[in-house]
Write a structure and sequence with these properties.
- The chain has a domain of 121 residues: Aminopeptidase (3-Layer(aba) Sandwich), CATH 3.40.630.
- It has 179 residues and is of the alpha+beta class.
- The N and C termini lie far apart (34 Å).
- An eight-stranded mixed beta sheet has the order 1-2-3-4-5-6-8-7, with helices on one face.
Amino acid sequence: MKAKILETERLVLKPLSFEHLTQDYADWLNDEEVYRYLETGGNYTMALLEDYLKDVIKRDIYFWGIHIKGSDLHIGNIKIDPINTKHGLGEYGIMMGRRSEWGKGFAKEATIKIIGFCFDELNIRKLTLGVVAENTAAVNLYKKLGFETEGIYKQHGFYQGRYCDILRMALFNPSLNEK
């Protein structure tokens, strides 16, 4: 795993590992509210989660579990994968799994830390992401953090029993951005 431990005021971001093989994590992946806009979810077992973690660990990527400082409570995951070094691109993804912690600013706090890590330590030129257009909480967060919509993939993903638009958003590293 390439990821290293990162800290914010309220959070510890730990490289995803077998420490995260818990029933709570599997339960998030089976919670319709959690996975409603994700590519995966539903019918998850501990065995499937273990296989997923094995794959993540062997791929040697930047992938963290988000934990609350003090309690060490695992509340979500955040990653940058893939990274294209030739073009200076990194693809961002986040899942806030523990619903009791939604709305407390943890996603924003973790994202700000990861943006700084990507821009300052990895010298990534541009972070990109895909988000379901109707996921207004996520879209609004990304806009507040400076991400801009670069394109819309019309009826591109199947969520909640229907096809939805996907926004492709990006944030440039201000220290590397050449106009």
